[in-house]
Amino acid sequence: MKAYMTNGTIDFLLKLKEKHQDIQLYLMTNSENGAAYYENSNKKIFSAGREYEIVIETGVWKDEGYIVMNNIPVQEEEQPAFEYRFKNRKNAADAMPGFTAFRLLRPIKGNTYVVLTQWHSSKDFSNWKNSEQFKQAHKNQAAKPSAYFPERPFITEYQMYVEEDRA
Question: Residue 9 is part of which domain span?
Fold first, then answer.
């Protein structure tokens, strides 16, 4: 299955959502911009969006919550090893209170994977980051960026957009 994402102002994204009511479009915001995300195997609606293959998915997306996207550039020759690492580890986050959904997204174009998690709240995500389970899940990561990262990974965080937010 594929996933699609784009960024823009919340007004622009609301117009997209209105135009494409046949698609479950999830809107999210942060202090800098808005983002729209949907999963669908056939239909591409963004003219300037990003397209991904869903490599791993657990949990179910909800219309509310807190989103964390780890954007990780991975060199092409290292992508199989990167995916293997995710496919062969326990996803301890799934068992954490407040966990909603996880997606590992492989880019169709470019080299930046997205490790996307949805949480009930930012506090739930913070609890995960400070947990023993998080330390165990990340204990074998290198102290410095691996050679397969051509650029620095970065994190983007969002709050799911709720229509009442406009009031």
Answer: 2-166
**pLDDT value of residue 40:** 82
C-alpha span between 160 and 30 (Å, rounded):
9
Q: Please tell me whether residue 53 adopts helix, strand or coil conformation.
A: strand
Is 60 exceeded by the pLDDT of residue 165? Answer: no
The tokens 């709240």 sit on which residue? 121
Is pLDDT at 135 greater than 80 in this prediction? no
Q: Is 65 left (phi over 0), alpha (psi -120 to 50) or beta?
A: left
- The CB density around residue 99, as the number of other CB atoms within 10 Å, is 21
Q: Please state the separation of Cα 83 from the chain's center in Å.
A: 15
Helix (H) or strand (E) holding 10: helix 10-19
Q: How many domains does the chain have?
A: 1
Q: Average of pLDDT values for 95-105?
A: 92
Q: Quick one: three-class SS letters along 23-46?
A: CCCEEEECCCCEEEEEECCCCCCC
Q: The domain that contains 58 carries what CATH number?
A: 3.30.70.100
Dist. CA 46–CA 79, nearest whole Å = 26
- pTM score, two decimals? 0.87
The answer to whether residues 82 and 148 touch, using CB atoms and an 8 Å cutoff, is: yes
